[in-house]
Structure formats: structure tokens, C-alpha cells
Amino acid sequence: MSNDQVEDEFKELLKLEKVLSGTVPPRPGITSPPQSKTGISEAELEALQAKADSTPMDFFRDLEWAYQNLGNDTPTGAPSTSALHLLNYGSSARSDFMKLISAYMMKKEKQKEDEDARRDDRRKQMKFINSLRDEMDRLSVDLLRQATDDQLMDACSARGLPFGR
Question: Per-residue pLDDT tens for 83-127?
Fold first, then answer.
């Protein structure tokens, strides 16, 4: 899959997030997932709704939970009602759901690779900086060894150091 395809899939994933969260009405031709195939009781749904009111929405957490519980007949520990909706969507439209998951996983893997590359770059930069510092220290010592006592005393005086002339 090319980067453009991954980006397109991820944009579709973000659109689905907006639809499921209710901030954007669904597009014509897209049906909402069937209601509660999961066997969750009304009391559990109310508890999840109360939990959702106090917990910030995390679409990717919900998506991962739905993916992990896709084959589970009686899922427990849903982090939100959105997670249940995603699970229902995954059960009813598995192919489309798996496209969403693959786009998400590709993006997550790309982020990990980018972070690893940045970490490696920082290590290379630090190694280079340390080698420059070591070289500067070596050169400073060499220059001090070559300087005469008079030159060192004059340099100290010019800088206002007390052991100058």
C-alpha cells in the first residue's frame, strides 16, 4: 500500500470517527451499524454513557478495543459506547472495518518508524557533538601546552583573572 493510499484510508477513518461521534451526519448510502448485537444490557449501556460523559473520547482506543473483541460473543470492559458501535460495525461490515483497522495500523506503524528514525538521528547528532567536544578539548590542551607562561599570564590579565599580571 502506498503512502497516498494509507493517507486516504486514514482520512476515511477520521470521517467515520466524526460520523460515529455524531458531529457529522452520515453520508447518503452509508447505514449505521445495527443496534446492540453484543448482548449488552440496557443498564450497562447507561453506565457506559455516564462513563462517556466524564471521559474524553479516544477513537483509536475504541477502535483497538473493537478489533480485539471482534470475535467475542460477550465482550466486557467496553471503554465507551463508541467502542460498542465500532464493534457492531465490525460485525456487520467486516471488510470495511478491516480496511479501517489496516489504515490505522499502517499509520501507527509509520509513526513508530518515524519516531525510531528521529531517535536514531538524535543519537547520531549527539555522537557527532560529543566527538566535536572531545576534539575541542584535545585541541585546547594542545594549545595550552604550546603557549609560553608569558602568553598564559597575558591571556589571564586580558580576561581579568586574578593570576594574571
Answer: 888 888 888 888 888 888 888 888 888 988 999 888 888 888 888
Specify the pTM.
0.43
pLDDT of residue 19: 59
Half-sphere exposure of 19 (CA within 13 A, CB side): 16
CA neighbor of 81 nearest in space, from 108, 42, 27: 42
Q: Cell numbers 447518503 correspond to what residue? A: 28
Q: How many CB atoms lie within 10 A of CB 78?
A: 23
Is 25 strand, coil or helix? coil
Residue with cell 586580558: 158
What is the distance between the alpha carbons of residues 38 and 64, in angstroms, rounded to a whole number? 16
- CA–CA separation, 62 and 13 (whole Å): 12
* C-alpha to C-alpha distances, 159 to 106, 112, 131, 154, 164, nearest whole angstrom: 59, 50, 28, 9, 9
